[in-house]
Amino acid sequence: MADCPQIRQQMRKQRNALSSLQQLDAARRVERLIASSHLFRNSQHIACYSANDSELNLESLIERIWLAKKVCYLPVLDSIHKNRLWFAPYYPDSKLRLNRFGIPEPLCNKRELVRARSLDLILTPLVAFDKEGNRLGMGGGFYDRSLAFLLRRSHWHKPRLCGVGYDFQRVNHLPSQPWDVPLSAIVTECARYKPEPSL
Predict the structure, then answer these.
(1) How many CA atoms lie within 13 A of 169 on its CB side?
(2) Distance (Å, rounded) from C-alpha 59 to C-alpha 80?
(3) Of 35, 47, 36, 34, which is closest to residue 76 (Cα–Cα)?
(4) What is the structure's pLDDT at 199?
(5) Nearest Cα residue to 63 out of 42, 85, 48
(6) What confidence score (pLDDT) does residue 84 get?
(7) Which domains does the chain have, with CATH numbers?
(8) Is 192 helix (H, G, I), strand (E, B) or coil?
(9) What is d(CA 92, CA 76) in angstroms, rounded to the nearest whole number?
(10) Splitting the chain (199 residues) into consecutive groups of 10 residues, what average pLDDT does each group show?
């Protein structure tokens, strides 16, 4: 089995090889699959992400969130704890600025920022995923640290964490660590996946 750096390299190469038309088609399919899901319908406060490095784009889904009168959020790097995320409300007229990774973040008053526990659903990008709901990200650990509180809960599981990516990013097995926060669901252009419990 390939190790995580090899998987990252391979998957990023495949993502970057997609044409603009393929990316747009996949984004539209994912929008339809997410919007018709119970997770989406039962959520009012939904965090998306700004696509970077050929990640699957959620712009059309964000517009659907606005049309449905739900509240959309985008992740914002914590200015004090450099490895954690806040979430900023994102509206059609929101101004954006680039963070230290070159990823757009909403400009807003600090009082408007919320922690992950205030959200119903978080849509997160991924580099790879497996059938057990393990997620491989870019390696920074931002989502795992920001969602670590979910690992200490036995009953209340909001926010739900849904990985978003291309179907070719599915692999047989990913190594997991005790601090990894598993996904509640994964959506690709081909299907909605519900993780299977490991034996």
Answers:
(1) 34
(2) 29
(3) 47
(4) 43
(5) 48
(6) 85
(7) 44-173 (3.40.50.10420)
(8) strand
(9) 17
(10) 83 95 97 96 97 94 97 90 88 95 92 95 96 88 88 77 97 86 94 76
Tokens 């090899």 label which residue? 6
What pLDDT shows up at residue 154? 64
The pLDDT value given to residue 141? 82
pLDDT of residue 197: 60
Residue with tokens 């994912």: 30
Extract the tokens encoding 167. 């179907």
Q: What is the dihedral of CA 90, 79, 54, 162, to 10 degrees?
A: -60
- What span, in angstroms and rounded, lies between the C-alpha atoms of 124 and 144? 11
Give the pair of three-digit tokens for residue 155.
């009953």
What distance in Å separates the CA atoms of residue 130 and residue 196, rounded to the nearest whole number?
9
Strands 121-125, 160-164: pairing is parallel
